């Protein structure tokens, strides 16, 4: 675990206390934001100055290489050397231009393509990390646009990319997924002002993961609206606050870490994320178990808008008790694998003791590897990855309920 993840326990109460009201929390964020903006502006100006000098030097190298290339005999070995110089100079000019944009302290608001931002940042990250780790992109092909300062989403993403890469010094794979939510689901995710829904991007690494107490510290800081004691995470909070968005952490020791960023969408919602005025018929009852209010809100909105009755539980003990009471009505348990009081796999076994044929769909931010895969094989439970893709969630829930 990198030292950058550690939070000083002596300041935990000050950082993570939840007694202040929302107005005081918002005021603190605003004060911290102004201070951070000043620091970023100074750093941005310095970085841009250095970048201009660097680009000027590269342009001189490129111009001279092109001039010499036009003079040498095509049969000489010097031509190959000049082509290498030309290619390298062009690549470095492109990357330094992207870095200059990231360092720009203030940018006008504009519609942004989140998929395009992700793809554009990869050369920068890979250039700084020697091509490791690898990136696996699973991008939703038709995302609505978001409305933000051009550099803010990019700064948040490159912070998470570099953090994930730093936590995997021996390489590995960073999975990057994008998706969208309709207006009702966005409200459940905490984006109440987003009439156009939401766009999300999830970054999952293969790092050692956060210990439970540290994960809870960070998650509570995010939920309470107070800035986390870790500078990088506080920076992410500030960026998402300015974007009128939110962020979510999902991590487990030995399973890696997933950060999900939610941005208000301004483009046309995709067909799958709209509910319209369709006739909604009752399709069954689902017990949704997750300790993250954001995930519960999104899942509940999606399922209820499709005709399901949803009962929610935020911990394992509550889930088992609710299932004991309502087991005759519950058609499916949608169960998170990480809960605050016990593991989701323990909850699954408790539910199966009450009803050996109970239908369960395990949800997690991790792939079906290791212990999860073994448990799925042992119990016959299904699996769905978080963050939820609306179409995938509805398809898997319907399939799990219809199994005879």
Overview of the structural elements:
The protein has 404 residues and is of the alpha/beta class. The chain folds into three domains: 16-105; 107-274, 2-Layer Sandwich (Heat Shock Protein 90); 277-402, Rossmann fold (3-Layer(aba) Sandwich). The protein has 13 helices and twelve strands. The strands form three sheets. A five-stranded mixed β-sheet has the order 2-4-5-7-6. A five-stranded parallel β-sheet has the order 9-8-10-11-12, sandwiched between helices. A two-stranded antiparallel sheet has the order 1-3. Helix 12 (370-379) links the parallel strand 11 (360-364) and strand 12 (382-385). Helix 3 (78-103) crosses helix 4, helix 4 (114-128) packs across helix 5 and helix 10 runs parallel beside helix 11. The longest helix has 48 residues, at 22-69. It is elongated.
């Amino acid at each position: 675990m990198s030292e950058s993840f550690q939070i000083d326990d002596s300041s935990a109460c000050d950082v993570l206390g939840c007694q202040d009201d929302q107005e005081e929390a918002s005021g603190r964020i605003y004060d911290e934001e102004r201070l951070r903006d000043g620091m970023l502006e100074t750093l941005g100006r310095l970085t841009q100055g250095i970048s201009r000098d660097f680009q000027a030097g590269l342009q001189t190298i490129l111009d001279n290489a092109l001039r010499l290339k036009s003079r040498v005999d095509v049969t000489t070995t010097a031509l190959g050397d000049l082509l290498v110089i030309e290619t390298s100079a062009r690549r470095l000019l492109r990357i330094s231009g992207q870095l200059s944009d990231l360092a720009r302290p203030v940018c006008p608001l504009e519609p942004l393509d989140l998929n395009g931002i992700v793809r554009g940042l990869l050369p920068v990250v890979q250039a700084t990390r020697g091509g490791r780790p690898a990136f696996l992109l699973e991008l939703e092909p038709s995302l609505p646009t978001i409305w933000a300062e051009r550099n803010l989403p990019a700064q948040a993403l490159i912070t998470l990319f570099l953090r994930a890469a730093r936590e995997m010094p021996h390489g590995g794979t960073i999975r990057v997924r994008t998706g969208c939510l309709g207006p009702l689901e966005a409200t459940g995710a905490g984006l109440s002002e987003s009439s156009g829904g939401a766009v999300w991007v999830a970054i999952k690494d293969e790092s050692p993961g956060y210990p439970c107490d540290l994960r809870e510290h960070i998650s509570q800081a995010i939920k309470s609206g107070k800035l986390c004691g870790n500078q990088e995470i506080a920076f992410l909070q500030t960026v998402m606050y300015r974007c009128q968005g939110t962020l979510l952490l999902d991590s487990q020791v030995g399973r890696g870490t997933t950060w999900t960023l939610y941005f208000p969408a301004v483009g046309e919602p995709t067909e799958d994320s709209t509910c319209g005025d369709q006739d909604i018929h009752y399709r069954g009852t689902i017990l949704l178990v997750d300790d993250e209010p954001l995930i519960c809100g999104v899942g509940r909105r999606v399922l209820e808008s499709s005709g399901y009755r949803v009962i929610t539980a935020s911990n394992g003990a509550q889930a088992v008790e609710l299932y004991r009471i309502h087991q005759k009505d519950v058609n499916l348990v949608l169960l998170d694998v990480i809960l605050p009081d016990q593991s989701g796999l323990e909850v699954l076994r408790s539910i199966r003791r009450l009803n050996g044929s109970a239908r369960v769909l395990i949800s997690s931010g991790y792939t079906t590897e290791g212990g999860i895969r073994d448990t799925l094989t042992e119990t016959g439970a299904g699996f769905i990855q978080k963050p939820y893709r609306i179409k995938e969630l509805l398809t898997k829930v319907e399939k799990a309920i219809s199994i005879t």
